[in-house]
Automatic annotation (TrEMBL):
Transmembrane region(s): none
Name used for this protein in its record: PHD-type domain-containing protein
Compositional bias ranges of the Basic residues kind: 232-262
Domain PHD-type: residue ranges: 272-327
Gene3D superfamilies named in the record: Zinc/RING finger domain, C3HC4 (zinc finger) (3.30.40.10)
Length: 327
């Protein structure tokens, strides 16, 4: 009888310990679950708060992109100019928001033509300087359709280039780049020579030709609004290859041997004479073509003119070719 009572007490003790351990395990598991839920909720609130703060900052500062520049309807695109200026003042690396192609196009709106071989920091530094120098966007019409860009929309001043005495016999002769527009198919500048008497002589010469006229002669060169800066820049260029190749825009290699194009001499390697897309220099057996808008040379294959029919059409001296960057 006594042994049975002892065994019963032992069993009851074992059952009691099992129940207590089970209860404690359940309680600890529930406590851990509640604790993790609370921590997760706090983290979610903190993350939501950060997201809301970033959203408010983005709403406060409006980012300027190429889509905004193209759709800006303000007068002379003054809103875009002020927006870009604000971005440059708030962040020195604002140019990282744009691609290299976009930066070159924006610089053209401020009358600066740079090669694709330039690095982004260099382009951004030049753009920041132009934003501080100008109170508006001079060539804002570059972001519009070329058919809607008129002479009244061009606000950049005339550029006066002093010609060396060895090139012009007249000691006081200067070259004034006018704002009058002309058709893109005319690659030769139309030069009007005004003498002291009442007579007027009109002469058609290439952009690198040497003008010899009597004293006190002034030469007026009329160019397109999109090629004004590039023409004034290349006026003093001493290189005599691509700019003096008649009216033919296409430079030919092996393909199309029967075409009549003026022969050219090889140029030294220079960033201004490299392809505007791949940045590689010219080779003797490659076809090149020049854009009538930006006056930059490109490889035939880089602009997608592998087809012989398209190449013959675009490289025709009377044809107007626009590169993919200016489209």
């Amino acid at each position: 009888m006594g042994e049975k009572l002892v065994n019963t007490c032992v069993h009851l003790e074992i059952i009691f310990k099992f129940i207590v351990n089970l209860f404690l395990n359940v309680s600890i598991a529930q406590f851990r679950k509640d604790y993790l839920t609370a921590i997760r909720r706090e983290k979610s609130k903190a993350l939501r708060k950060k997201v809301m703060e970033k959203t408010e900052k983005k709403k406060g500062v409006k980012t300027i992109d190429m889509n905004f520049l193209m759709t800006d309807t303000s007068e002379n695109k003054i809103v875009s100019h002020l927006g870009l200026k604000s971005m440059s003042l708030q962040n020195e690396k604002f140019y990282l928001e744009f691609t290299k192609k976009d930066l070159i196009k924006i610089l053209k709106a401020y009358g600066v033509n740079l090669s694709m071989s330039k690095k982004k920091p260099e382009l951004g530094q030049v753009l920041a300087e132009k934003l501080n120098e100008n109170s508006a966007m001079p060539n804002y019409c570059i972001f519009k359709d070329s058919s809607t860009c008129t002479d009244k929309e061009i606000h950049h001043p005339d550029t006066i280039v002093e010609m060396p005495e060895t090139e012009i016999s007249a000691p006081s002769a200067t070259v004034t780049v006018s704002n009058k527009s002309m058709t893109q198919s005319q690659e030769d500048a139309q030069i009007h020579v005004h003498q002291d008497n009442t007579t007027e002589t009109t002469t058609h010469l290439p952009s690198q030709s040497v003008v010899t006229e009597p004293d006190s002669a002034s030469v007026f060169v009329t160019t397109d609004c999109t090629t004004q800066a590039s023409l004034s820049k290349r006026k003093g260029n001493k290189k005599t290859t691509r700019k003096q190749t008649s009216k033919a825009k296409g430079r030919q290699g092996k393909r199309g041997i029967g075409r009549k194009l003026k022969q050219t001499t090889p140029l030294p390697d220079s960033s201004d004479e490299n392809c505007g897309i791949c940045g590689k220099p010219e080779k003797s057996e490659e076809d090149w073509i020049c854009c009538d808008i930006c006056s930059i040379w490109y490889h035939r294959d880089c602009v997608g003119l592998e087809d012989e029919t398209s190449w013959l059409t675009c490289s025709n001296p009377d044809a107007v070719y626009t590169c993919p960057m200016c489209v």
